[in-house]
Design a protein that fits this description.
The structure is a single chain. The chain has 13 helices and 20 strands. It is of the alpha+beta class. The strands form 5 sheets. Strands 3, 4, 5, 6, 7 and 9 form a 6-stranded mixed beta sheet that branches. A 5-stranded mixed beta sheet has the order 1-13-11-2-10, with helices on one face. It is globular.
Length: 461
C-alpha cells in the first residue's frame, strides 16, 4: 500500500462506530507490511519524535507519497539526530513535499495519534506483538512478598497510593518533556505548559519519572473520578478550564537507557529517592511534588500508616524495600496495601453487553442493589463460563445474592442520587446458595469501616 491508500483505510476505520468492525478492518489491512509500519511508528511507545508543536507547513503544495526520505526523517527524529529548530525545519519540509492526505498521515504519526478510534491493543489483535508493551514496574500483594526479608532496620519506605492517573514523564536535553500513559500513549504536552516548564527546570535531563497526575481546583486535589475524567478529556484533545491545574506526584526516577522491554536499573530505591528529593529541594516549584513518603521500622507501623490514610478516604499505601532495584515487571520488593471489602448484593436485573464488544447480545453485567435500595451498582459477569450459564437461564440469576469485592463506597452526587461502589467485581463465579438477603447500606458502610480499621490491626498483630 502507499500512504494515500493507508490514509483512506485509517479514515474508513475512524468513520466506523462498531469496535468489532474497526478491529476487522485493521486486521485485514495488517496483512500489508507498509500499513503495519505506519501503525508501529504511530503507536510504538519507544518511537517518540521530540516535537512539541506540530508545524503547519504550506497549503498542501506537495506531490509525494511516503518514501525513503519520509522514514529517514522519522528515524532521525527518534534517534534525536534532529532536535530543536532542525527538527521543526525537517518536519515542515516533509509536510510541504507530501501530497495532502499523506501530509496529514505524517502529522498524525508524529503526534502518535492516528485519530481513528483504536489503540495499540487493536494493533496487537490484528498482528500479535506488533506494538511492544511499555515498561512498567507493578506492585505485588502482601501474600506474594517476603515482608520479613525487607530491611526494617534501615527503614522500609511507605508511600501514599495516589488517587489519580499514572503517568511516565521523560525529561530530555534541550528542555524536552513528554508525558505518556502507562501504555505509552502520549498526552498533548501543549495542555501542560506550566508543568512541563517546571519539570525542565527542576529535573535533570536523561531520566524518566514515574508518578501520578492529579488535578487541583481552588487549592484542593479533586477526587479520582472527577480528576481522571478531566485528564481523559485532555488526553483526547481537550484542555484544562480556568481554575483547574495539573500537578505531578513523583515516586521514582530512572535513566532513559533503562526504559526498554525487560529493562532493569540496579541503583537501590533509597538512592533514587534521595536524588528526587535533592532535585526538588534545589529548585522550588508547586506543580511537581514528592508523593507522601514516610519511613517505618516495623510492619505494624507500616500497616498503621495504611490505615491512617484509609480513614481519610485514601486508597492505601505502597511499601518498598530500600534496597529494591527498578525492573520491568512485577516486583516483590514493593507491596500494595490497599482497602478492599466484601458486601452481599442482590441481582435485580441482567444488563446486556455493550454494542460493538464481544459481549454484544449476551449478558454483560448484573444490576445489583442493597436490601434497602440505597446503593445500586452494575457488576460485570465474572467470566465466559459464567456468562454462558446466565445466558442459558437468566431467570435463575435474578433475585440471587452475590459476593462483591470493592475498593470504596461512592457517595450520592449530581449524576447519581444513590450510593455506589468503586471498582466492584464478583468475588466468585457464582451466586450464594447460603444467603437470600443482601446487605443494607448501613452494613455496607460498616463493612468498609471494619476493613479500614481491621486491616491495619489484624495485619500488625
Amino acid at each position: 500500500m502507499n500512504s494515500q491508500e493507508i490514509f483512506d483505510i485509517i479514515e474508513g476505520v475512524a468513520g466506523e462506530s462498531s469496535k468489532n468492525t474497526k478491529q476487522a478492518m485493521v486486521t485485514s489491512a495488517a496483512a500489508d507490511a507498509e500499513f503495519c509500519r505506519v501503525l508501529d511508528y504511530a503507536y510504538n511507545p519507544f518511537k517518540t519524535y521530540g516535537i512539541r508543536k506540530m508545524p503547519i507547513g504550506k497549503a498542501h503544495n506537495g506531490f509525494r507519497q511516503f518514501d525513503a526520505q519520509t522514514w529517514q526523517v522519522l528515524d532521525d527524529l527518534i534517534a534525536r539526530r534532529l532536535t530543536g529548530q532542525a527538527a521543526i525545519d525537517a518536519v515542515t519540509a516533509e509536510i510541504d513535499q507530501l501530497e495532502e492526505d499523506s501530509a496529514e498521515l505524517f502529522r498524525r504519526v508524529v503526534r502518535k495519534d492516528l485519530r481513528a478510534g483504536f489503540s495499540e491493543s487493536t494493533c496487537n489483535k490484528a498482528k500479535k506483538g506488533l506494538i511492544p508493551d511499555f515498561p512498567y514496574m507493578r506492585c505485588c500483594l502482601p501474600k506474594d512478598a517476603k515482608l520479613a526479608d525487607f530491611d526494617w532496620k534501615l527503614g522500609v519506605i511507605s508511600q501514599e497510593k495516589a488517587d489519580g492517573m499514572f503517568a511516565n514523564i521523560n525529561v530530555e536535553l534541550g528542555d524536552l518533556v513528554t508525558i505518556t500513559s502507562r501504555q505509552g500513549s502520549p498526552f498533548p504536552i501543549d495542555a501542560f505548559p506550566e508543568l512541563a516548564a517546571e519539570l525542565a527546570e527542576r529535573i535533570p535531563p536523561g531520566v524518566q519519572l514515574h508518578g501520578e497526575l492529579l488535578v487541583m481546583h481552588e487549592g484542593k486535589i479533586l477526587a479520582r473520578e472527577i480528576g481522571n475524567g478531566i485528564l481523559n478529556s485532555v488526553a483526547s484533545g481537550g484542555g484544562f478550564t480556568d481554575g483547574y491545574r495539573p500537578i505531578y506526584m513523583i515516586w521514582d526516577m530512572i535513566p532513559l537507557t533503562a526504559v526498554v522491554t525487560k529493562g532493569k536499573h540496579d541503583e537501590p530505591y533509597v538512592k533514587r529517592l534521595s536524588k528526587i528529593i535533592a532535585a526538588l529541594k534545589a529548585t522550588p516549584g508547586s506543580c511537581v511534588r514528592l508523593i507522601e513518603t514516610k519511613v517505618f521500622h516495623s510492619l505494624a507501623e507500616a500497616y498503621g500508616h495504611a490505615g491512617e490514610l484509609m480513614r481519610k478516604g485514601k486508597e492505601g499505601t505502597v511499601i518498598k524495600n530500600p534496597h529494591a532495584i527498578w525492573k520491568d515487571g512485577t516486583s516483590k520488593e514493593q507491596v500494595k496495601l490497599k482497602l478492599e471489602f466484601n458486601v452481599d448484593l442482590k441481582i435485580v436485573a441482567i444488563m446486556p453487553g455493550t454494542p460493538g464488544t464481544k459481549t454484544e447480545g449476551r449478558a454483560g453485567a448484573f444490576a445489583c442493589e442493597s436490601s434497602c435500595g440505597g446503593l445500586k451498582v452494575n457488576v460485570t459477569v465474572k467470566n465466559e463460563a459464567m456468562r454462558d450459564a446466565v445466558d442459558a437461564d437468566p431467570d435463575d440469576w435474578v433475585g440471587r445474592v452475590i459476593d462483591v469485592v470493592a475498593n470504596d463506597i461512592m457517595k450520592p452526587s449530581e449524576s447519581n442520587e444513590l450510593h455506589s461502589l468503586f471498582l466492584p467485581r464478583m468475588a466468585e463465579a457464582g451466586y450464594r446458595t447460603d444467603k437470600t438477603e443482601a446487605d443494607d447500606l448501613d452494613r455496607i458502610l460498616a463493612q468498609k469501616e471494619a476493613a479500614v480499621l481491621g486491616k491495619s490491626l489484624k495485619e500488625a498483630a
